[in-house]
Amino acid sequence: MSTVIRNGTVVTADLTYPADVKIEGGRIVEIGKGLKGDTELDATGCYVMPGGIDPHTHLEMPFMGTYSSDDFESGTRAALSGGTTMVVDFALPAPGQGLHDALQMWHNKSGRASCDYSYHMAVTWWGEQVFDEMKTVVEKEGITTFKHFMAYKGALMVNDDEMYASFQRLAELGGIALVHAENGDVVAELSAKLLREGNTGPEAHAYSRPTQVEGEATNRAIMIADMTGVPLYVVHVSCEEAHEAIRRARMQGKRVWGEPLIQHLTLDESEYFNADWDHAARRVMSPPFRNQKHQDSLWAGLQSGSLSVVATDHCAFTTEQKRFGVGDFTKIPNGTGGLEDRLPMLWTHGVATGRLTPNEFVAVTSTNIAKILNCYPRKGAILVGADADIVVWDPAKEKTITASAQQSAIDYNVFEGQTVKGLPRFTLTRGHVAVHDGEMRTQEGHGQFVKREANNPVNKALSSWKALTSPRPVERTGIPATGV
Ligand code: URP
Ligand code: ZN
Ligand code: ZN
Ligand code: ZN
Asked: For residue range 73-130, what is the model confidence (pLDDT) as tens digits?
C-alpha cells in the first residue's frame, strides 16, 4: 500500500520546491512530479515539511511530590495534533536508582506512544554504578544525551564535582551533556528569604530566579564542558545572559547549543502578576518567563543561528496539582504545557511576522534537532529513505487556542485565547495519517523507540572509576517513589 502527498510545496531546512511525496512501508520512497499511489492526500496550498521533533518533554514524570499529568498517550496525541511527530523525553532515575532500571520504567510507560520517541538520561546522583552504566546506556541502549540539573537543590541538583566527573565520562563515551542551567544554591537562598519576608505567591517564583542565576550557571556549565571537551546542550534558554554565554562560546568554536522554548518566546513575566492565583501558578516554570528585552534576544538568536532549536519542556500539571503551592510558591509544581501549540505558535509569531523563513522554521523545529541528536536523516528530512514523519502544513488555516479543544489532559492552556494562523492539514507518523484537518486518528502504541549513535569520543581521560574527593550521601527529597 502506497500513499502519495500530491500538489504540495516541499519545504526542508534548505530547499523549497513543488513536488509530490510517495510513501511506502512507513518511509519516503519517491519525490517527484505526477506521482500515483493507492491513497492520495491533497496538499494543494500547503507546505510538506518534516514533522516537528520536540527535544524536551516530561511525560508522566515524578516531580515535586506528584506526576506530570500528560502521559505518553495524551502527550503524543497532543504532539501529533500540532504537527510534532517525535518527542524526546527524560528518563529520570530516583536517588540511588540505576540508569538501566530507570530506563526500563520509561520503556514501560512509552509503550502507549502514538508517535516515535527517544530519551535523554538524567544524571540525578553520582556513584560508581552511574559511571559504569553510562557506557552501556550509550553503547547498547542508544541513549547518548545526559541531562544535569544545576537547580532543584536537595532533589535533582548535581554539584559541580559530580557534573565535572559526569562530563568527563560523557566525553570519552562520545555523548552530549545537557544542562538545566540555574544556580540552585542561590535560588534556594532567595526562595527562603522571600518566604521569610511573607512573599508566598506565584510572583515570588519569578523573583527567586532572576536572569543572573541562569547566566551564571550557563557560563559555569560551558567552562566545565570546555575543560572536559564534551559538547554541551543548554535546555530552556530564557534570557540574554544565558544566550550571551552560548553565543560567545559558539564564536570561540566551542560545541555548544541553546534551546529556547516557545513559551519564553511568546509569553512574558506579566503573567505572574495576574490577580488570579490560578492563572499565575499555572505559568510557574523554571526558568520563569522574562521581559521583552529577553524575548527579543531569543528571537535574535534564532534568526542569527546562535540558538539552534525551539522546544516546549512540556511538563503539564493540572490546576489541582498547582494548588499544592497555595501559601508557599516553592511547592507549586514547576512546568507548563506546549506540545500541541509549539509549531502553530512559532509559525504565527515567527514566520507570519517575517522573523523566520519557512526553511528556518523547519530547521529549528526539526532538522537541527535531528542533527544534534544524531537521528538525521532518518528524522528531520524529506528525503528518499527517511521515515515518513511529515506534516502537511496549511498556512491559511486558523484557530483560537482553547483548553476545551486540546488533546493534553490538563484543564487549561497557557496560550488560551491566542489565535494562530498556520496548522497541520495532515500529520503522518511513519506513513500513518494520525491527524486530518483536526480529526484525530492516532493509534496508541504505534510509536517506536529511536536509538541514537554516539559521536566520536573526545578523550580517554577517565577510563576507570575514580571516587570524588568528598562525595556526598545520596539523599534527596521531592521525588515520589517511582514504582510503575
Ligand atoms: O519548570 C520546569 N521546567 N519543569 C520541568 C522540569 C525542568 O526543569 O525541565
Ligand atoms: Zn529544566
Ligand atoms: Zn525540562
Ligand atoms: Zn501505523
From this structure: 999 999 999 999 999 999 999 989 999 999 999 999 999 999 999 999 999 999 999 9
Global confidence as pTM? 0.97
The minimum-distance atom of ligand 1 relative to the CA of 284 is 1
pLDDT of 456: 83
Which pLDDT band, with edges at 50, 70 and 90, does 484 fall under?
very low
List, as one string, the DSSP characters of 371-430: HHTT-TTTSS--STTSB--EEEEEEEEEEE--GGG-SSSSS--TTTT-EEEEEEEEEEET
Domain that holds residue 215: 51-381+395-418
Number of alpha helices (DSSP H) and beta strands (DSSP E) in the chain: 15, 18
Q: How far is the CA of 178 from the centre of ligand 2 (A)?
A: 10
In a 3-state reduction of DSSP, which class is residue 453?
coil
Residue 404 lies in a domain: yes
Domains contained in the chain, number? 1
* Ligand 1, pocket-test mutation among 313, 339, 410, 414, most atoms within 8 A of CB: 313
CA of 295 to the centre of ligand 2 (A): 18
* Band (338; pLDDT cuts 50, 70, 90): very high
Residue 450 pLDDT exceeds 80: yes
| Distance (Å) from CA 431 to ligand 1 centroid | 32
ipTM over 0.90: yes
Give the closest residue (by CA) to ligand 1 atom 8: 286
Residue 461: predicted pLDDT:
55
Half-sphere exposure of 345 (CA within 13 A, CB side): 24
Q: Which of 68, 15, 60, 20 minimizes the C-alpha distance to 40? A: 20
* Ligand 4 ion local residues (Cβ < 5 A): 432, 446
Per-residue pLDDT band for 466 (boundaries 50, 70, 90) equals confident
d(CA 464, CA 132): 9
- Considering the domain boundaries, does residue 130 fall inside one? yes
CA of residue 431 to ligand 4 center, whole Å? 7
Residue 95 pLDDT: 87
The CATH number covering residue 148 comes to: 3.20.20.140
Q: Is the CB of 427 under 6 A from ligand 1?
A: no
Strand partners, 424: 393
The distance from CA 365 to its chain's CA centroid, rounded to whole angstroms, is 10
Task: Examine residue 146 and state whether it is found in any structural domain, yes or no.
Answer: yes
In a domain, 20, yes or no: no
